[in-house]
What does this fold into?
Amino acid sequence: MDHLSAEELFCELIDLAVDERIPAIDALNLKDDALRSELVKMLKDADAADAYFTGTAVAVKMIPPRPSQMHPIEVEGDMVGPYKLICKLGTGGFGVVWQAEQEKPLRRTVAVKVLKAGMDSAEVLARFDAEKQALARMDHPHIAKVLDAGMTESGRSYFAMELVEGCSVTQFCEKNALSTHDRLKLFIDVCAAVNHAHQKGVIHRDLKPTNVLVSRETSGPIVKVIDFGIAKAIEGDLTDQTLFTRAEQWIGTPTYMSPEQLGMGSIDLDTRSDIYALGVILYELITGCPPFVLEAIQIRSLDCKLW
It folds into this structure.
């Protein structure tokens, strides 16, 4: 079974009951420890997605893959729409991001985000679509642009976006030993991008240094805000698909989340939550560390939930 990829094994295991999955993995007798670890993580991510997107703690049964989808995992050199996959840039809970090349009707390098095989519950599809819609609303030099969207041959959603080659804003500042003045200049660009999102009716909800990338161009450092994967519309919806969120489920990264976001999840959040996150990022840019310790935030939140 080691010749199968983690994604292919995932598709075979996801339909099992949660308490049957680990025994099933053990029964495979996988010799590759890294493969086993990746598979366990993918299944945990799927469980987290179910709890994240549904109104109950019961896992949503993923749609079984069609026969043509049993081996649809993309590899380097494959085509996704008009884009040739060059190298994998990263893997998140629901999508895989690739660097890709487009040759026609114009030649350019892009980033392509493809929904993972097996992650095609209605709720995950709605979240993936919401990210596309949030980015499509934006037209700002400091926000990564959506360029195209479509379906792979195996029927999974993808979208192509501007490729941002850089590192997090905190890493960039440390690596280049920027002065406080230069750090503030970058931060002003971050604020302008977030302000644009708010004017377009979108709350980011996961602002943090790793979602603020900086690349070095001939004109100087360029800031790009990325990852609108858990964005929320100020009014209305970002997608026509039904999307449920557990009221007690954290949405975001605790270190950078506002008190109301920690306490209420997505209920009645407004743009002030993003402003709070910007304040935490600014604090870290100036002092070198965030204002609060993650463990302390988790303990305080747990105490609140218990009472």
